[in-house]
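This section describes the prediction task in plain terms. A model, or a person checking by hand, is given the sequence of a single protein chain and must write out its three-dimensional structure as a string of tokens. No templates, partner chains or ligands are provided. The sample shown here is typical of the held-out split.
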Amino acid sequence: MVSTNIQKAELVEVFKDVGKKQTWQKNDYIIGPNQQPPGVFYIDEGVVKAYDLTKYNEENLLIIRKPNEIFPLIWAITGEERSVIYQALEKTVTWKVERLQFLSLIEKHKSIMSPILDMTVEMYRLHSERILNLEYRTVRERIISFLFTMSRRFGVQTDEGIKIELPLRHQDIASSVNSSRETTSREIGALTKKGLIEHKRSYILLKNPAELQKYIN
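The expected answer:
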């Protein structure tokens, strides 16, 4: 990554100086279906799920945004954004600025472009990983690859394994790995019975990452 801690701190300061602080409860829509983004959001606390709806009205998980990230980033820079829904996965605190104000801030505080560039590269990397993930032949392989991707962004090493502290539903995982919820639930159940993972409402635990890795090598 190219940004320094000083530049990251400046980005936070800029948003908090001019932005509007908002608190969202779990499942609140920050940007709802068919809603034009009302501004650019900086996540201070919590996590935000970005997804769209298929023609069958099913959720298609795109990315999960975490603290110190901005959304919707493509719209913020270009003004172009397809219909993406942003929903709080837990209690979340954001700072919102108007898009034109955001562009003006970038012009005035050029150093904050470095952390924004980092976010753009990370978003590109995650979407690239998702495309590569779909090359795996079996749903089990794709699920394991998805879990490793989530562990790199949200995982915490514990004595029991790598803990991914995200309230992910089976449907969220299924949509990301191009599978049905039923098949995904069955595969997660199989991995749980093997003692490789543990899936609770608020977290996923990778109990044996080395053994999981063998599935996708």
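For orientation: The mean pLDDT is 92.
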